[in-house]
């Protein structure tokens, strides 16, 4: 730590500390977004799902109004999660304190990263109290020691770390868009059967009542200006689809010529298990990724690139399914059902996951999207008193439609392009996250100078 750095208690560095503990707002379905402790996670504010009424805002927010750039800190359940507010008008819930650095003394973006540092997190934990749930009183929070360099240096450090976070966020947004494209393509072809409807309309074939409304909308849309017409497939792909529907007992109306089967008959599925955690020979110095639903819950895209825990060779042998290959589709089968991922690494799985192994006919994006759009049917087959769980026995008989081979090939070709882009972006997210996490403690302790960090940033971007 350089001698030019300053150390002061948190309270001495703040222009505002806004604390709404002890009050519970009346929540509504829409209105002013409500920032709650549960959506402050991993340095960011997750999607907002709760609101307060517009006409309640002034009454509720009497203790102070948050501003763009303010730092929010969770004080309990969990303690120590940090994020920064953007320009939206928001309300603050319980267990959230807003911090605003003293102007010209403590930069707010630098403050966000400082509050995430091990130096501050250790103090929060040490000053927190509670047996079941640990929390921190404002009187204790105000005494937390903050160390920081000159204001200009703070801005430089915040810019480096912020640039990395912005690039990570941009990549995540692009991945979300790419995933939405894959979902839309799958839904159009294999859920809504749009190409079959279009072909049936052209051929003048009967339209089942179940899809009549959609067929009517598509027929009307074709009469609109070309810019407003629904997306039409190239002729060579559209001609691969049939032009009529047939009624099946298992799935209702389906495209003519497509086979109705089951997921278990078409795709090899397996589960996993957890070697004894009391036996170090299964875990100590392990190098083989071991995936649980918890790992899947933390993903920012469909791609699984790492896990929290690792198995030894002996540990892998204790898992009945061993190590599963790259491009295995994983689905959490309990607590909760429905996390989905595609492995980019050989991986072993625990008993809370059903794995769909790579299949020459059905690519990983096909299987993942099949599971996504069939999740209601999957959950309907689950059981359990403490929490719902879908067993392989109940999963395997779920109806599964098999399109013509050429149609699957066309979808897989489109999907591979999308998946390759998602994979590339996910790998960059991973490397940038590692770099940010390595730079943060070094920059915030003065071990690494700004020019050196800027060089590392330039090389990474």
From TrEMBL:
Record InterPro entries: Restrct_endonuc_typeI_TRD, Restrct_endonuc_typeI_TRD_sf, Type-I_RS_S_subunit
Region feature Disordered, mapped onto this chain: 214-235
Annotated ranges, domain Type I restriction modification DNA specificity: 33-179, 255-409
Single GO MF descriptor: endonuclease activity
Entry keyword annotation includes DNA repair: no
CDD domains: RMtype1_S_SonII-TRD2-CR2_like (cd17246)
One Pfam family from the record: Methylase_S
Gene3D superfamilies xrefs: DNA methylase specificity domains (3.90.220.20)
Keyword Ribonucleoprotein: no
Gene Ontology biological process terms, A to Z: DNA restriction-modification system
Keyword annotations: DNA-binding, Endonuclease, Hydrolase, Nuclease, Restriction system
Xref: PANTHER family: TYPE I RESTRICTION ENZYME HINDI SPECIFICITY SUBUNIT (PTHR30408:SF13), TYPE-1 RESTRICTION ENZYME ECOKI SPECIFICITY PROTEIN (PTHR30408)
Entry similarity comment: Belongs to the type-I restriction system S methylase family.
Protein's name in the database: Restriction endonuclease subunit S
Annotated source species: Halopseudomonas bauzanensis
